[in-house]
Design brief:
Length: 523
């Protein structure tokens, strides 16, 4: 081989080497880019799952907190009123009447899934729902009584339990009363919390969601057959593995593998040492990412956009659910406002209020009289204003509460909505004069409209009945006159006619009406 041929072969080898190096560098570049995108997409996907789990957990946490908060407020208000009744030596009959009314109000305005209010008061079990216990029922031995008495007057949340009859998780909220021995309580069913966990799975926000109480007993679960189980008692099950990982996790989320699948779990702490766990099976999410190692960056970008869109839609659902919960919460109070009024000192203290009254009270009223009168002047309609101002006059309140513990008035506000204002005597002096009252405003617009409709229907039914009676009376009178004339003529025929053919007909007419009159007398 001559020199020229050798040079050509050598140059060809150098070109091949250069091409090999170039293509190697290009492949390495794209492999590096794909790996970079893979790692970035993997981390983004995991973070998205975690954030989504966090959003779902926070939603459930907020709902449960609001649900319990509303229950606690109802117990506090009831306890506050009964404390006043105990101080003023009200009978258990009067206290039971209050519990019955309050149970109806709580059931209608806040919770459909509650049996109402009950308690052990002045040595006697009182039930606002009318339940009569068995003869061997000892209230002071029940957990709700024992734990509440030992809780120094604070609102007590009794550990939930699985009701054997209904198969539903039920819990008791109770509070010790002023005498230190009496208790007022309410049972609530956690159905709505269960619905939240199931809805989360239906919407694809998670594969499993469950809530555990402080004993690690299942309070709510997207798989209903798990409700009431205690995961401390299980070993090596899927749920016990999740619980063990949650106990040992340094963060509020963790990952683990189980039977060939990869899971990401987000854990959110809830009040009273409860926790909400959101479980996502990430196996099907991460498998396509491995496939993306062999395809183009464009597909990677498309996948990122799709995942971003999914996460954005999920976040929008969460925001909508949050706004809905806030709207329902704003309707969950029994009373629009509750104030404690000291008549002697002419001062007031807010127990429960709403944004509208909060805005009005920023005017810094000097005393209770001016505060009540000023607010009612702004919220009552012109038609109701005069009567309402007479009602809120504290100077005449003692006379009106002389023989009663409560007075009320129904009025329309400036939006033509019906409201009920109420004064309840909460404390009296030794001479019987009222020293403190509760001032409450209640929304009765729906109740008032329904009541007016029933009255209208009743009046229309009565008018129809009167018209019917009048018609029958007139008809009877009109028919009786010609019949009497016929009977008179028939008597004349019997007395004066000798025709043998006519006489039998006249006698038949007389017998017919004789039988008719005899039947009327018997009936």
């Amino acid at each position: 081989m001559n020199q020229t041929a050798k040079n050509m072969v050598s140059e060809k080898k150098r070109v091949i080497v250069k091409k090999f190096l170039f293509y190697a560098l290009v492949i390495a570049f794209f492999v590096g880019v794909i790996l970079l995108y893979y790692n970035m997409l993997y981390n983004q996907t995991r973070e998205g799952i975690i954030k989504n789990g966090q959003a779902v957990a926070i939603q459930s946490k907020n709902y449960l907190s609001e649900y319990l908060s509303t229950s606690i407020d109802a117990i506090k208000l009831t306890a506050y009123t009964i404390d006043g009744m105990i101080r003023t030596n009200k009978t258990n009959k009067e206290i039971l009447d209050y519990l019955v009314g309050q149970s109806t109000a709580v059931t209608n305005a806040i919770f459909e899934n509650t049996t109402g209010l009950y308690g052990y008061i002045n040595g006697e079990y009182l039930d606002g729902a009318g339940w009569v216990p068995d003869a061997d029922f000892v209230p002071t031995q029940r957990p709700w009584y024992v734990k509440t008495v030992a809780n120094n007057g604070n609102v007590t949340l009794i550990d939930p339990y699985l009701d054997a009859q209904t198969g539903k998780i039920t819990m008791t909220i109770a509070k010790r009363l002023v005498d230190g021995k009496s208790i007022v309580a309410m049972d609530i069913v956690l159905d709505q919390v269960q619905n939240i966990t199931e809805e989360s799975v239906k919407l694809g926000k998670s594969d499993y969601e469950f809530i555990l109480d402080s004993r690690n007993m299942v309070v709510a679960h997207s798989k209903k057959d798990e409700i009431g189980k205690n995961y401390n008692d299980e070993k090596d099950s899927f749920w016990s593995v999740i619980l063990d990982n949650a106990k040992n996790a340094d963060n509020d989320f963790f990952e683990f593998d189980y039977e060939g699948a990869h899971y990401i779990v987000y854990s959110e702490k809830i009040e009273h040492d409860w926790q909400c766990l959101i479980v996502k099976n990430a196996t099907e999410i991460f498998t396509p990412l491995k496939i993306l190692l062999a395809i183009t960056i464009l597909i990677v970008l498309v996948v990122v956009l799709i995942l971003s869109y999914i996460l954005n839609k999920s976040n929008q659902r969460y925001i909508m659910a949050k706004e809905l919960n806030e709207q329902l919460s704003s309707l969950s109070n029994i009373y629009l406002s509750v104030y404690d009024i000291d008549i002697i000192e002419n001062t007031f203290k807010e127990i429960q209020s709403n944004p509208i009254l909060d805005k009005l009270l920023r005017q810094n009223y000097e005393n209770a009289s001016s505060m009540i009168e000023g607010t009612m002047r702004q919220i009552a309609s012109k038609i109701s204003l005069e009567d309402t101002l007479r009602f809120v006059n504290l100077a005449t309140l003692n006379d009106r509460l002389k023989d009663s513990d409560t007075v009320a008035i129904e009025y329309q506000n400036i939006e033509q909505k019906w409201r009920r204002g109420r004064f309840i005597a909460s404390q009296r002096l030794k001479n019987g004069a009222v020293s403190n009252v509760l001032w409450l405003i209640e929304d009765i617009d729906k109740e008032k409209n329904e009541r007016d409709e029933l009255i209208n229907l009743s009046e229309r039914a009565f008018a129809a009945s009167e018209a019917k009676s009048s018609f029958l009376s007139n008809m009877s009178h009109e028919i009786r006159t010609p019949i009497n004339a016929i009977l008179g003529m028939n008597e004349m025929i019997l007395r004066e006619c000798n025709d043998s053919e006519i006489i039998p007909y006249a006698e038949s007419i007389k017998k017919l009406f004789s039988h008719r009159e005899s039947y009327k007398m018997r009936t």
